[in-house]
Amino acid sequence: MKSMHTGPLIGIMTAKNANGTIAGNGPLFIELQKGLISLGGISFVFTAEGVTADFIDGYTYLPDENIWKKNRFPYPDLVYNRIPFQKLEENGQCQKIFALLKEKDIPFFNPCFIDKYILYDLLKNHTILQKFLPQTILIKQKRDLFSFLKKHNSIYVKLTQSSKGKGIYRIWQSGTLQIQLEGINRLETYPSFHHFWVHWHKELLQKSYLAQEEIKAAEYKGNRFDFRILAHANDDDYVLTGVGIRQSQVQEITTHIHSGGRLLPYELLQTNEHDHFIQTVVPHIGKALSEQFGFFGEFSIDAGISKSGHYYLYEVNSKPMSFNETEIEETLL
User: Fold this and answer.
1) 108-122, 123-137, 195-209, 300-314: range with lowest mean pLDDT
2) Backbone phi, psi, residue 234, to 5°
3) Does domain 116-133+216-317 fall into CATH 3.60.150.10?
4) Sheet of 56-62: strands edge to edge?
């Protein structure tokens, strides 16, 4: 297969669903293949199960026939990591393949998912980026969370390893003692912080959660909005790929499209100040990620602006979805 083209051979590594089908962002993979073919190259999709010491069994998309064809490939010139499930990426089989790629000196594009608190810990010491971070703590004990809530009155708690708004709750004090908790599809009241902690401490401590001060976000037509920023590597720098506006609709916890938010064109709210903020943070974030974790070829940023006009960085995501946010777990093959 490699001898049939003159450009690069790119391997796209993904994973299998529980039912054995191959998962992945099919439309993205197809567009990558079409782009590579126009440059004389070719790509193929594979999972850990198809990797041997000498070759890789995978699938390549044939645009003229609109089909995926199984084939046997030599090791590629570069591997693009699009494994959509963090647990699978961290298992022994995938880690062995990553080690093998390093042995063969094959560049590895996007080394890992990004832990939200590790990211915060990295950026809080960055001279440029630290001023854009909401105050954040890792939840380790009752006393620290209580003090943090008392200081900010309203906070978010988030799983440190999650995406698309999963595992996110808003907590605030109502009255003198009452604690309110709001999730995407739930609203609960507790007589006191102690009662809340009794109910939630196992979840908060057995899994990894952080607490983050609530930012009173700017609104458009009565609903909060934030920026979804896509960026990619370009030579030795990082450049903007695109910007969209996400706006909450049916609930105010998150603007994620999967949770009822909607996507608006950036041009609707674009300002010189917004442009300057975005152009400032993109290269600094890209370089910080690659220096800490290994080469990141792409990433997305969830950022926002408060009602008072201060910009904030909420999250940075590896393996970003496109602006229409097609389900990354969709069945590809």
Assistant:
1) 108-122
2) -145, 105
3) no
4) 67-73, 56-62, 42-46, 9-13, 78-81, 108-109
Number of residues written out for the chain: 333
- To the question of pTM greater than 0.90 for the whole model, the response is no
pLDDT beyond 90 at 213: yes
Residue 161 has pLDDT above 60, yes or no: yes
Q: What pLDDT is stored for residue 164 in this prediction?
A: 59
For the stretch 65-99, pLDDT in tens is: 999 999 999 999 999 888 877 777 777 888 898 88
Residue type, 48: A
Question: Domain limits of the chain?
Answer: 2-109, 116-133+216-317, 136-213
CATH number for the domain running over 2-109: 3.40.50
CA dist list (Å): 73 to 3, 45, 56, 107: 10, 10, 5, 17
> How does DSSP classify residue 23?
B
* 297, 110 Cβ separation under 8 angstroms: yes
Three-state DSSP class for residue 219: strand
Q: Give the max Cα distance, the chain.
A: 73
Q: Is the model more confident about 328 or about 93?
A: 93
